Structures are given as C-alpha cells and as structure tokens.
Amino acid sequence: MSLPNSFRLLAADGTARTGVLETPHGVVRTPAFMPVGTAGAMKGIHWREIRESGADIVLGNTYHLMLRPTAERIAALGGLQKFTGWNGPMLTDSGGFQVMSLAKLRKVTEQGVRFKSHIDGAVLDLSPERAIEVQRLFGSDIAMQLDECVRLPASRDEVDRAMQLSLRWAERCKRAFEGAPQGHMLFGIVQGGDVAKLRRQSAAGLGEIGFHGYAIGGLAVGEPQDVMLAMIEEAAPLLPQDRPRYLMGVGTPDDMIEAVKRGIDMFDCVLPTRNGRHGHAFTRRGVINLRNARHADDPRPLDEESSWPPARSYSRAYLHHLVKAGEALGAMLLSEINIAYFQSLMAGVREAIAAGQFADFRAATKAGWAAGDLPPR
Amino acid sequence: MSLPNSFRLLAADGTARTGVLETPHGVVRTPAFMPVGTAGAMKGIHWREIRESGADIVLGNTYHLMLRPTAERIAALGGLQKFTGWNGPMLTDSGGFQVMSLAKLRKVTEQGVRFKSHIDGAVLDLSPERAIEVQRLFGSDIAMQLDECVRLPASRDEVDRAMQLSLRWAERCKRAFEGAPQGHMLFGIVQGGDVAKLRRQSAAGLGEIGFHGYAIGGLAVGEPQDVMLAMIEEAAPLLPQDRPRYLMGVGTPDDMIEAVKRGIDMFDCVLPTRNGRHGHAFTRRGVINLRNARHADDPRPLDEESSWPPARSYSRAYLHHLVKAGEALGAMLLSEINIAYFQSLMAGVREAIAAGQFADFRAATKAGWAAGDLPPR
Description:
homodimer; three-stranded antiparallel β-sheet; alpha/beta; TIM Barrel; 2 domains; 377 residues
C-alpha cells in the first residue's frame, strides 16, 4: 500500500541526494543530522542553541521517555514538543534498541519484548503495537517500527531470525499506525546484520510493505567501517528512491560523508555531546582533545573560521582549563560546538550536492581532517 | 590616606542606599548581587545568560584560580576578563576563606598562611602581599584584602586575635596595592565574629587605614540571622558613608533584603546555582522544590510573571522531569532562573529605594514569600 510522500528530492550528485522532508512541526533539510535528546533534553545544551546550530530535527528515545515521565503523562501535557519546548520536528526511535542495551531480563518473543525497567525494576511489555501507541502519544513527527537488533558478531541463523521477526513486526507496526494524524510518518528498519543477502531481503520486504521512509539499523555497533558501508550499498538501492533513508546511530563525520555518498539522507548520534563531555572537539581539522597540555597556554580559538561563535571566541586555554577543572561549562561549550560542527558539515554537504560538487567537497573535507590540528604555538 | 572614590550614591531611603560603582570594566548598579564563578566559570550557566539576567558584576575565587590555571597563566592570557570571556566588572576574593575551608594542612602565621593545594598537594604560601599580587595578575576590578576568618563558635580571644591579625594584613595589603592601575579598587574586610565590640574596632580600624570599599566578612557561616544582622548594625555605621559596603557570602533573598535595609550595597553567594543544581527554584512565592511529586503533571510555569523567559515558558512538569532524570538541563535552567530571580530582586530593591518606597517593597516581597507557592492543581 502506498503512503503519502512528504519527501521531495531537490538534487542528486551520483547517488548522493539532497531534499526536504515536510513534517507537522516544520521542514527538515536533508542530508540531516539529528542531535539526540535522550530523555526529553539535550545533555548540557539549551534548546535555543540546538535551533541556532542549524538543526532542523532532533531525536528522542522512546525507551527512556516511556519509563519516565511516561507516554501517557507526555500526552496529557500536550505531546513531546509542548512538553520539552523544542518547537520543531522530532523523530522517536521504537525503544527496541535501548531495551536490548539498557533493560534487565529482556525476553524476545513473537509477541514483543518483555523487560525490567532499569529505573525501578517494573516489568513492562513492548510489542509492535505498544511501540506505535507510545510514539503516537508522544506526537512524534516520525515514528520508528519496533525491530530486533542483534549484537554483532552473531550467527547467520540468529541474524536471519531477528531480521524475519523485524519484518513481521514491521507489518504489525504499519497496521497499528493506521489512522495516525495527517503528515505523521512511520519508518521501517532494514536489519540483516553483516549478511548482504539478508540486508537485501529485508530492504525488499520493507519496500513491499510500504513506509513513509526507511532506516538502516543494526550498524555502527562495532563493525569495521567497510562492513557498514558495504551493507548500505546492499540495502540502499533496493529502497524506494523517492523516500528518505535514515542510517541509525551514525556516526562520525567520516561515516556520515561516506554514507551520504551512498544515498543516505538522515543520521543521529550521541557522539557530539558524549565526546564533548569528554573534552573532545570536532573541527574541520579533525578531532581536538582539549585535555591535552599543549592547549594550556594557547590563546587561539578552536577554529577562527567556525560558524559557531564560541568556537571562534573562547581560547583553547580557557576550554582546556574548563575541561581540566571539571567545570560544567566546558562540557556545555564543547557539546554545542560539536553539534554545530555536525550541522555545518551537513549544510556543506547539502550545498555541495545541490551544486554538483559533492566529490570535491568530500575530498576537501577529508583532506582537512587528515591535515590535522594547527601546529602547537 | 584617602583613595579616589568611584562610588556615587544616588538615593537613600532610611539607611538603605542605591548607587553606582564605576569599575575599569563597566558600571555596577547597587545594591548588587554578584554571581559566583568559582574557577573562572559559572556552574552550568553561559556568560551571556549571566549578562542577560541583569548581573553587572561577578565574583571569582582566588584560591581556585591561583591553583588552576594559576595567576601567572591568566595574566599571560590577558587577565581574567579576556580569559573567561566575561567582559564586565569582576571582583576576586583574597583566597583566604577557601584556604581555610578547602586546603589541607593550613598554618596561619603573622607572615601569612601556608597550605597544601587540594588539587595536587603542592605546598603554597599566601601572604597579604601575594594575595594582592595574584589579584593584580588577574586584573580584578575589585581586589579583597587577605583576612583570617575564624569558624564560629570560637572563643572571644580567638576572634580577637584573628581580627587584629586581619587589620595588620589590611595595612600590608594596602601597601602592596600601591601603584595598581587607575580605577582598580581594594576593599578591606571587617572581622570580629559575633562580638559587637570587636566588629566596631575592626570597622573603625579599617576606616582609618582607608580603602576604596569595605566588606563585612565572617558572617553567614552558620550563625542565626539576628546575630548576622546585629553585627551589620554594629559595623556599617562606622564605615565611611561614601564608600560601597559588601556583605561577603550572603545570602538568602531574605538575608539580602534585611542587609540592604541596614546599608549594605553588595552581595555574593553560591546559593542560586548550588540550590538550582539540587532542584530548588527561588521565586517571588518563596523556594519551590521541583523534586516534589506535586509538580509531575503540572503544566503551569514556575512563575508566569517572571522577567526570565524559562521561568515563564517551561512547565513545572518538565522541570520536575529534568530534575528527577538527572538531566544537566534541569540544573542549567534552575541555576539561571535563580540567578535571574536574585537579579530581579536587586533591581526591585534599587527602584524602591530610588522611589523612597523601600519599606513597602520589603513588606510586599516578604508577604509574597510567606504566602508560598500556588496551591497544587
């Protein structure tokens, strides 16, 4: 069954694409990086800075939010946007991935997954139908199907079983999503681990069911980058060309550039905020570790050409001091500097594709990272 | 010896006063509340929010900054303002109070205090001369004399000894401050514990030495409020009327209102940020504990009439959720909401004094706190 399409491709350059995705809460320019606001908040960043950084859309984690403050409470308070004050597009995952990584005593059956909350030990069930119900209570602009994501390495049989189960869950999610308000979207998720044939089977199966968009899941879970890229190359060509494609949980700037080259439109990752909290800055000269003593007396900014004011105005010496002293402001500044860098990278990608110069952009960007940081002063 | 006076009284209402203090980095409207940026940063607040909250001046802690990143490094990087990016007036304490409360193996002699750094165990000396040297390296707009602040309760002899020592250190600090650049100021500190006669002796002695301004120290260290206010009443009338008076480490909104009534012009305290990190909001209806379950489903803002946008726009339910989930954003929002409340209180105090309506303002403000929070919904 074909669903309405809110995605419009504006330009392609090879297999790289740029477009716009209309959601009930606004327009998303693609390729897009979605900052992760796990429990209804960005760690250490005000919402206005997320907006100013150039982010069109953010991601919320269903697992965390369904446990606390709960989906029913968020619905009673007017939905996730109203609750958080982020007045823009929001995608929520299905909760499945975090159930696997955070919850205790999880048990997967055909029906769904039963688990114990890591907060209070309550036993809860998450079925495909409940995953959709929860995300509709949130009022998510984009909901994700429930899937089972196996840890790699895993046997081929195990990967096959989880992929097939995820396909059956995809169908149930689609049925549960019927009657969702106009403009709200549901994405299916390609599984199949590191097995090319299973990835192709999953992508084709999801395309037959029909979704508003398609994610590729179960990657960036420790496998080498070439395996991840090979799996994208298997799946992407089999997904409907006119729908958005979202690579879940990815990734590093280099991962994103390579995935865009292979036709990916959307990304999410905790890397910019997590690494910011650990004193690492993503820049056009690669990753800079502000803990390093070489910065202690350095009056130069992180990047005098950054689009983000704090990356131009604060000295490396001050950022080094904040990180060494454990000051919250250090984590706050580096997290937002990193989010802004990811956004400026996506803006550059979009412009380059529109201009038919993606190959040059990719080469120049990688050359900048490879050249590395400024010499010490 | 009389020093140049950068303080101008604009109006008085009883013993309450309002004025302006000119510093090399800008004008401070008094009564003023100085947020505390211990180690060169506000905990969880961006500098621009400190500025937007209405703060004219902030305080830095010499003890922390002299240990890390060190005074010499800050000087080489252009001084505290340039280093931190706070482009406004800054007062630094002398380091003495934190040596007493944080350092290990401290030993007070006539010469100064020898202590072990709580960071790396290095043995350091802080003399009156070194305290001034360090603060001049910082480029502080207002430096404080080194003093000895005894813990209460203490014997009268002990309080007397520390007060007399502080007076001798005050003279040495004044000498060490000679030749400081135009417009930079040095404040003496009244000591004397809870002994009225010693407070009077200290205030009179400092007035004879002559400073740009005068602080009252060694209060708000656990004694009842009436003892603190009684000591202010002893000291304030003996301090030069045309100079600013600063009550160190104070305090609660009620403490500040009562101290303003008794002629105090400046305050500093970690309360708004520390209590913000613990989920407490200061409001015109008193202190609200956002951890309380009564807020979990409450869509109302903290204070719909607040001058600070987040206090009007975020629901109590969201703030409650952030606090319960341990999200950094909760501490960030409540810290800035509290700083903004302290600033709006000072703005109200200044206006009321200028209008000759301080008594009414004080009564109405206290009535608001006493009436308490809105009834639960």
